[in-house]
Design brief:
25 helices; about 80% helix; about 0% strand
């Protein structure tokens, strides 16, 4: 099968070399049927492509593409088939052995293909302007066929550039490519999307071609792309242009500076394409134009990426916290409801208390008013001669009432002081108990150690034997008669224990003896002896009085204040004696009560000036 196909290719090559120019296109179309046979394996197909290259059939295809196919019947369909053959023969094949095809034939064929695409697109546009409204018939079929042919040419050219990447520069430098992009009506813009896909594929397969472009070709291409951005109405076309410009800048970073200098104010015109589905690429291009340098734009892009990552992290963190809150919310709600109920109950209780106090105040005022009315009625009933006696009784009752209330207040104050004093006393007792326990443990620990005083001095062995001999002699001489040895041994042990106890107690007394305590005990004994020997008042002399006098300033001051109190008690009015029925109510050693009666008098007067206390007395 493979040999027959090889023979067909060889026979076709010989026929093409001898045929007329008008017959060659139809002959070359037969290669399409040879390449598309389904029984061929990949290796056989590769061998056929090599055979076509060897017999110079591809140069004939490039030559045929230069013909004017508009004057030939079905000429555009034949040309499209030849373009597909050329693209398929160059796909996944090496052209290192065919330098002429690589350097001359294919670049020339690319320019011819672009021109053919331009011609077909022009034919399509003319037919569309005349018969675009017709949906059926010969004209509608012609429009559809032209559109299909244009799409086939663009797809074949994309495959050709993909397989032979060095042709990308030829495509971008071609004037026919600019002619395809120049058209600016809405219908042509829909077809220019295919052209932009071709440009994008060229930049993608050979990124170095952007830097190698001639300056005039690069400027023409950039001018047309920027013009399409500013004037086009197609979102798809502008999105492809923006993405292609980004790829060109990535391939050739200096292009960003040139674009910034050449197209000033482009950023403001590009803002109208925001929110059209390609904001990411558009914002990246605007940042590059704003920065004027790819490095600065990359830094800005990374900064934006960091912000996006941080925002995503914060969002995740917030969602996690909210997820945890779903578990905590029931307890928070129950706590809030409980607290709200407690606040409502507290407010209700406060309102009820206020109402009760208000009612109590009204009741008190009412009782005071009734009591005064009752007094006035009683004064009306009492005879004139008994008015003074009635007033005297009322004064006595008032005095008793005042005394009762004042004594209650004074007792309350005294109780608070005594309570604090008793608390301090209890605290001192607890502290003393703890200290005594600590000292007892310390004494017991010391007494458990062997007494150093009872240690016998070391005696040499010779003297020890002499001492032992003398002791035995004295025991023999002084031994009682009829006393058993065991009883004597028991008496000896008892004597030793008592001697040990005596020395230990004597050591403790010597160690813990306090000289201040001894001096205080001595003073107490002397004063006790002086008090026990006091004579009677009838026989007392000045010497006895001097013996009773004290040298302490505190005692002298206390005696002077007690004398002042006694004299004041004899000369004061009756209402000044209400708080001093007992002498035990005054501490002579308290420095805060001087003068005693003036302070108590001020307290009584202040108590009587208070309206509430007066109402309590007469309520």
């Amino acid at each position: 099968m493979a040999n027959s196909e090889h023979e067909e290719v060889i026979k076709l090559a010989s026929v093409v070399s001898e045929a007329n120019d008008n017959e060659i296109p139809a002959l070359l179309v037969r290669l399409k049927y040879i390449l598309h046979r389904s029984q061929q394996t990949p290796q056989e197909l590769q061998d056929i492509k090599e055979l076509i290259l060897d017999y110079d059939l591809l140069p004939w295809c490039a030559i045929v593409l230069k013909y004017d196919h508009s004057k030939v019947k079905n000429g555009f369909a034949t040309a499209v088939s030849i373009v597909e053959i050329l693209s398929q023969c160059c796909y996944s094949i090496s052209l290192e052995k065919h330098e002429e095809v690589k350097d001359l034939t294919l670049p020339d064929a690319v320019n011819s293909i672009l021109y053919l695409a331009f011609v077909i697109l022009e034919q399509y546009f003319e037919n569309w302007k005349q018969f675009g409204s017709i949906r059926y018939g010969t004209h509608a079929e012609t429009i559809a066929s032209r559109l299909g042919q244009f799409q086939s040419i663009m797809d074949s050219l994309v495959n050709l550039v993909t397989s032979q990447s060095y042709l990308a520069r030829t495509v971008l430098e071609s004037d026919n490519l600019i002619r395809l992009l120049i058209e600016d009506n809405a219908e042509m813009e829909k077809r220019q999307v295919l052209v932009m896909k071709l440009v994008q594929r060229c930049v993608r397969v050979d990124s170095s071609c952007v830097e190698k472009l001639r300056s005039t070709s690069a400027n023409h291409l950039l001018d047309e792309l920027i013009f399409k951005i500013t004037s086009s109405q197609s979102d798809d076309l502008v999105g492809l242009i923006v993405k292609t410009l980004l790829m060109m800048i990535d391939a050739y970073p200096d292009l960003a500076g040139k674009m910034t200098m050449r197209y000033k104010g482009l950023k403001a015109l590009m803002t109208k394409w925001l929110d059209h589905g390609f904001d990411y690429n558009l914002k990246a291009l605007m940042e590059i134009l704003d920065a004027g340098n790819l490095k600065l734009a990359e830094l800005a892009r990374r900064t934006r990426a960091v912000k996006v990552i941080w925002a995503a992290y914060q969002g995740w963190k917030t969602r996690a916290r909210v997820g945890k809150l779903h578990k905590v919310i029931p307890s928070l709600q129950s706590s809030f409801r409980r607290k709200r109920q407690e606040n409502l109950q507290a407010a209700l209780k406060e309102r009820l208390g206020f109402e009760q106090r208000y009612e109590a105040e009204l009741h008190r005022k009412r009782q005071v008013r009734l009591a005064r009315e009752k007094q006035l009625q009683m004064l009306e009933i009492v005879p004139a001669r008994s008015v003074n006696r009635h007033i005297q009784k009322e004064e006595e009752k008032a005095a008793v009432k005042i005394q009762t209330i004042w004594r209650g207040c004074s007792q309350k104050k005294r109780y608070e002081k005594e309570k604090l004093f008793q608390k301090q006393v209890n605290a001192a007792i607890i502290i003393q108990r703890g200290i005594r326990k600590f000292l007892k443990r310390r004494r017991n620990a010391r007494s458990s150690k062997p007494n150093q005083l009872l240690k016998y001095p070391t005696v040499p062995k010779e003297l020890r034997e002499d001492y032992q001999f003398e002791i035995e002699q004295k025991k023999t001489i002084s031994r009682k008669k009829d006393v058993p040895l065991s009883e004597a041994q028991a008496i000896h042990d008892l004597t030793q224990q008592r001697l040990l106890l005596y020395h230990s107690n004597r050591n403790e007394r010597i160690q813990f003896r306090d000289p201040k305590l001894d001096a205080l005990l001595t003073k107490i004994h002397i004063e006790e002896e002086v008090l026990s020997n006091l004579p009677d008042l009838s026989t007392a002399t000045k010497v006895d009085v001097d013996n009773l006098s004290s040298a302490s300033n505190a005692v002298a001051v206390a005696a002077e204040r007690e004398h002042y109190r006694a004299m004041k008690d004899f000369t004061s009015q009756w209402w000044k004696k209400l708080a001093f029925d007992t002498k035990d109510s005054i501490d002579p050693f308290d420095a805060k009560i001087a003068p005693v009666y003036d302070q108590e008098q001020n307290d009584i007067e202040e108590f009587l000036r208070t309206p509430g206390n007066f109402n309590n007395l007469f309520g």
